[in-house]
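S1.2 Input.
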Amino acid sequence: MKAIIFKKPGEYAYEDRPVPQVEKPDDVQIKVLGVGICGTDLHVLMDPPMHPAKPGIIFGHEYCGEVAAVGEAVDWLKPGDRVIVDPHPPCGCCKNCRSDCPGQCTTLYSQQDTPWPEHGVTRGLFADGALTSYTCVPAHSVYKISKDTPWQLAALAEPLSCVGYAIEKLDIQAGDTACVLGAGPMGLLFAAMAKANGATKVIVSEPYEYRREKALKCGATRVVDPAKEDLKAVCLEETDGLGVDHCIEAVGQLLPTAIDMIRPGGKIVMFGHDETAMPPVRLAEIVRKEAAIFGGFLGKYYFEKTARIIESGILPLEEIVTHTFPLSEYEKGLELLRAGKALKVVIYPEEY
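S1.3 Output.
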């Protein structure tokens, strides 16, 4: 089967790989239907890279598929079932998992034999992923989703799980106000989720007009070009001088801006992932506002809920998936994303 193989920073290859087979009792062989290109993938393919990956692995971690075969211990899945996959599932039994911190699973983060022990064994980054025709994964990382769900939308399950897990920390209530910094795919998912959770005003800050227009279709009630408008003034105007109840940072460098946007007692979730960012922070402002600041990372134990959310159609996911390409045209997807002419690109295999 053909696969996209990460070679080294700035380099990948389109190569043949053997089809993985069911070997363990709890294995599930999955026929890949769609794989989203993640912003992390773009960071890995930079030279120098902004995120590490293991050379020689099959790329791709945001995917959905169809069950092709199961091990003898798997009695709740059968060939033909449509599924979404957690590419970095927690073990469920280590001290962190048993202490309600699955995002810090010590089994997942135990790569002591690699140069990146702080990163989990995520499929598509540090173990073989899904930019190919078939994958084989443990059953506990697989979740059913309706067969009626378009594969292009089901491929959003992994990023949506991360967004859902993070936004629940804010506990958005009906009538709340929110500001989202950044309208990339993750920012748009946050805007859509904030609106679905009951926020009556969702202000989205984004410098690119194309993304601002998409934000208005994904739940934003007002969009701001931060290069031309005073975002803080807009947030104060929209909240009668108070500041927003919640701010979602989906860029990675804008914590000081997020602190400016919230009201006293407001909440922030930091989600944008930039390993190099070290912004100056006004600690006194956090203290005076008694701000609550959360980190959002992976979508642990959220995939079951994600499947229901996607099936419901409550979110305008079709606005976020802007392009699909066959595996052999993977480079076209990368080019569009690098040029800022696409949001979420989903790749599909051409052979089985």
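S1.4 Remarks. Residues 185-196 form the longest helix (12 residues).
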